[in-house]
Amino acid sequence: MRGRLAANWILDRVSRTGADATLDKFRAPTPDGERTFANVMVEFPGTKTNAAWIVVMSHFDTMPNIGEGFQGANDGASTSGLLVALASALRRSGRQPESIALVWTDGEECRKAYGPNDGFQGSRRLAETFRARQRQVKAAICVDMLGDKNLNITLPANTTPVLKDIALAAAKRIGAEKKIVYKDDIVVKDDHSAFLDLGYPSIDLIDFDFGSAPGLNDWWHTPNDTLDKISAESLLVSGRLTAEILNALQQ
Ligand SMILES: [Zn+2]
Predict the structure, then answer these.
(1) Does residue 138 contact residue 249 with C-beta atoms inside 8 Å?
(2) What separation in angstroms does the CA of 216 have from each of 140, 208, 219?
(3) Long-range contacts made by residues 178-184, C-beta under 8 angstroms, separation at least 24?
(4) For the whole model, what pTM was predicted?
(5) What is the 16 CA–ligand 1 centroid distance (Å)?
(6) pLDDT over 70 at 99, yes or no
(7) What confidence category does residue 1 fall into, taking pLDDT thresholds of 50, 70 and 90?
(8) Domain ranges in the chain?
(9) What residues are neighbours of ligand 1 (ion), with CB under 5 Å?
(10) DSSP assignment, residue 122?
């Protein structure tokens, strides 16, 4: 129910920018039986003939069973807000050479343990839809937990190398190279994995040091994931970085 409220809120916010947002409702299995999910999406068709697609994803669902009042301020909400701002910026900037899809995915979090029927239902649905429509995907970019006041972005090993290079160069151009690091010993299963599994170039930008001391992730999936732990400054850096990557992909 709250998921549906969140989806409608995003839909409303994006529609207010004048962009044509849609809800993609679908049924998918979960450990508790089949249930309905809904991705929110907005597409900006490119000007190029045979424009390829760049997909930017943030999950908007929050981890269930954390307790009453769980905010998921960083894990779910922060990058979902980033995508709303990005929709507004893209709308204002006019058409881009490549086609860009912004997608707020549902079902990223698992209910019990990650598996074929638990977690990533939204991104799997999205990647399969792109394949079924034979769309050419230039990059699938996942942004996750990027509102952390103490921003430390990880590019995990399961990131397409060319996209890793583009992201690191983009960070340098905006003066944020100290806030991002490639970790070749860490694999993070995130929404980009669904695209990676289908052979599309994919990248994950995630801050997985979300905690009470450097190197700790002890606020993640706890009642401590609250609004006071995130900052507008971090979101500005994350947003600029995402926009710079989008620019670089269209050079
Ligand atoms: Zn999570």
Answers:
(1) yes
(2) 28, 8, 8
(3) 179/151, 179/152, 179/153, 179/237, 180/152, 180/153, 180/154, 180/155, 180/205, 180/241, 181/152, 181/153, 181/154, 181/155, 182/154, 182/155, 183/154, 183/155, 183/156, 183/157, 184/157
(4) 0.96
(5) 28
(6) yes
(7) low
(8) 2-248
(9) 63, 75
(10) H
How is residue 118 written in tokens? 């638990």
Q: How far is the CA of 95 from the centre of ligand 1 (A)?
A: 33
The model's pLDDT over 119-134, given as tens digits with 9 standing for 90+, comes to 999 999 999 999 999 9
Q: Residue 3 C-alpha to ligand 1 middle, in angstroms?
A: 14
* N- to C-terminal Cα separation, the chain: 42
70 CA → ligand 1 middle, Å: 12
Ligand 1 center from residue 50 Cα (angstroms): 36
Q: What is the pLDDT of residues 164-188, one digit of tens each?
A: 999 999 999 999 999 999 999 999 9
CA of 98 to the centre of ligand 1 (A): 30
User: Where is average pLDDT lowest: 51-55, 69-73, 245-249?
Assistant: 69-73
- The CATH code of domain 2-248 reads 3.40.630.10
Which residues, including other chains, have CB under 8 Å from residue 71's CB and lie 6 or more apart?
62, 77, 225, 226, 227
CA of 71 to the centre of ligand 1 (A): 11
